[in-house]
Amino acid sequence: MPSSPSGPPSRLAVLWTPEFLGYDFGPGHPMAPTRLDLTVRLVRELGIIDTPGIVLVEPEVADDAALARVHEPEYVAAVRAAAAGGVPDAARGLGTQDDPVFGAMHEAAARIFGASQEAARLVWSGEVDHAVNVAGGMHHAMPGAASGFCIYNDAAAAVRRLLDDGAERVAYVDLDAHHGDGVEAAFWDDPRVLTVSVHQSPMTLFPGTGYATDTGGPRAPGSAVNVALPPRTDAAGWLRAVDAVVPEALRAFAPQAVVSQHGCDAHSLDPLSDLRVSVPAQRTAARWVHELAHELCDGRWVALGGGGYAVVKVVPFAWTHVLAEAAHRPIADGTPVPEAWRAYVEEISGESAPATFDAGEVGFASWSSGYDPDKDLDRVVQATRNAAFPLLGLDPLH
């Protein structure tokens, strides 16, 4: 991996408004807005938001013209109608168990979409170097349908805005446990966009897509790179897979900006995946993406949230690390968790929050140590390299 970014803190835009908490599918739904509230409270208690060079940006609801850059107008109309009390359109994913209808659905989802679009604008214009939207990362939404807790696809919106503003090559890196299918589908046949997704095998997890042999459309061969991990892949194995694919693919593609999705549902405590990744490993991967943005794109980096359903013990810590990394203020191992934040957690949830941030880097064997055909992990990583790397002009065996 490249060396850590150095120098003064980058200019960072944090897209945030309490209105994000209105993206709420109701009691018992895994996508609890509490995870956003706890993340931002933790960031504030740690003083990260007060870092010189950070600006808070309050996003607006995206208008229909902006939404139409990613979604079919008929779908947007269906979302509005369902939210206004009309009959939910199950054929468009509305009113399902994953995506139940709620009154503020259109405005809440369009605000997240608008935030990621604005993050991309700020980065490409040079007003900031990095931008973070922890409410974003709704990577499953399709042009004409909701899917997997996602109404509008803000990740695709960020990529689209970069292209509309003049970027010729944009890399999208998805570290969620679930395949970034909606973003891949949006740019499947667009050679200007590289989508890289590291996720649990589609044979064992929603959405059932993202095989190593899925490598892009006929006009964009090699534009999609998919690493489909075996269930129960641990932190060391996950980092080995990320290390084996992401840096080489991005360097070959030479993007002018990076958009990354940091869904933290690959964690061992998450109820919706079968991976066993730790917060320190997720922190390391965020650092790698940050380093690559500086190496390849003059720092132009948009970082988004995503999945993550261990609301107290995982999500706030994983995303606080992403924000701290973007602020060039990484959190030291063993840093005490502010007592006021822990008290708030216990008050609203009855759970005891960790007293310190997890300590220690995750040891892993880099891919350069050699391929072991007897290991399931190495076989799936090699399958990805065999399928995608030649299309990017890379040797899959070295």
TrEMBL record:
Task: Extract the Pfam families matched here.
Answer: Hist_deacetyl (PF00850)
One GO term in the molecular function aspect is: histone deacetylase activity
Cross-referenced Gene3D superfamilies: Histone deacetylase domain
Q: Where is the Histone deacetylase domain?
A: 29-324
Q: Which organism is it from?
A: Sediminihabitans luteus
Which UniProt keywords are present, listed alphabetically?
Answer: Acetoin catabolism
Q: Which PANTHER family match?
A: HISTONE DEACETYLASE HDAC1 (PTHR10625:SF10), HISTONE DEACETYLASE HDAC1-RELATED (PTHR10625)
Known pathway:
Ketone degradation; acetoin degradation
Name under which the protein is recorded: Acetoin utilization protein AcuC
Which family is annotated?
A: Belongs to the histone deacetylase family.
Q: Which GO annotations describe the biological process of this protein?
A: acetoin catabolic process; epigenetic regulation of gene expression
